Amino acid sequence: MSMNLTAALKLDETAEIAKIAERLRELLRSHLHRRGLIVAISGGVDSAVCAALAVQAVGCERVFGLLLPERDSASESTLRGRMVAKQLGIAHEEFDIAPTLEALGCYRWRDQAIRAVFPAYTDDWKNKIVIAGGQTGHFNYFKLVVQSPEGQLFEERLDSKNYLQIVAATNFKQRVRKTLEYFHADRLNYAVIGTPNRLEYDQGFFVKNGDGSSDLKPIAHLYKTQVYALARHLKLPDAICNAPPTTDTYSMTQGQDEFYFALPYDKMDVALLAYNNGETTAKLAGELGIGLDQAEFVYRDIEAKRKATAMLHWPGITMETVTGPNTKAPILG
């Protein structure tokens, strides 16, 4: 029987919060043997909900928050992060990672690739990458968009070499943040919380050994719509509950659907749920009010992203099977 997709995304928020909090306590005690939890708070809904769930699990005195802005971070993201830390009553530290990124060459490598496309680009310009092509029946490709100080916009299709260099350089940001999270985790004997929701986890929208690395992922089973529902139930600040999802990685505002997903998050939730439950593309088209061609593209895109990003989920591959008491993660299902 075909399911009601929108209804299937509804949660019993009270029960879900209690279940996640209990699981976090159990894993800290029985598997990880850590005293508390580290959460990097970006100013978005996912990290805010994870921080609130951590407090529900172990209390505010055993949660440590990190605010880790850099040169391209939106100022409102840091403001929202401070609001969350204050409301939850958790100890936290704010650390600007821009000097570290500068020393590593993050901005230099990125700007070198941008100037290969736009020679006039300088430090006072802004930039972002957007995805294009797929929904018009062509292969997905990426465009570089830049904005001059006078507000003029320019865009060009990116070749693979410069695309990869820009992405590799920006991935420094997530990896430096994760290094700091694990420093404080080691210092305090805490475990690191990962913040991907189900869309991001399923579709590989994370950086390996960056935001994809953690000890616990409390919301990886929850669709983005459900995360917003938890945020409202937890009475997080309105600025968090109403914040649109962005990457907050490039100097120009960049929606996640601009850069990666085939649809805005609320529709993408429905699409992934439909795909996971074997619903037809005709059912998806009717549910979202889109054409059958677009629904078929979305399903193909889900499959393609799963295939392309599968290795992001893998641990390092050994040359032979290595057995022993510590070679398998606990079965938590």
> Approximately how much beta-strand content do the residues carry?
5-15%
The CATH architecture of the largest domain: 3-Layer(aba) Sandwich
Relative helix content = 40-55%
Which secondary-structure class do the elements indicate? alpha/beta
* SSE string: HHEHEHEHHEEEHEHHHHHHH
Low-confidence region ranges: none
Q: What is the residue-mean pLDDT, rounded to a whole number?
A: 92
Overall shape: it is globular
Instruction: Please list the strands of the largest sheet in the order they lie side by side.
Output: 3-2-1-7
How many individual domains?
2
Kindly describe this structure.
The protein is α/β, with parallel strands linked by helices and 333 residues long. It folds into 2 domains: 179 residues, Rossmann fold (3-Layer(aba) Sandwich); 58 residues, no CATH class. It is 49% helix and 11% strand. The chain contains 14 helices and 7 strands. The strands form 2 sheets. A 4-stranded parallel beta sheet has the order 3-2-1-7, with helices on both faces. Helix 2 crosses helix 3 and helix 12 runs antiparallel to helix 13. The longest helix is centred in the middle third of the chain and has 29 residues. The chain is globular, with a radius of gyration of 20 Å.
Write a compact overview of the structure shown.
The protein is an alpha/beta fold and 333 residues long. It contains 14 helices and 7 strands.
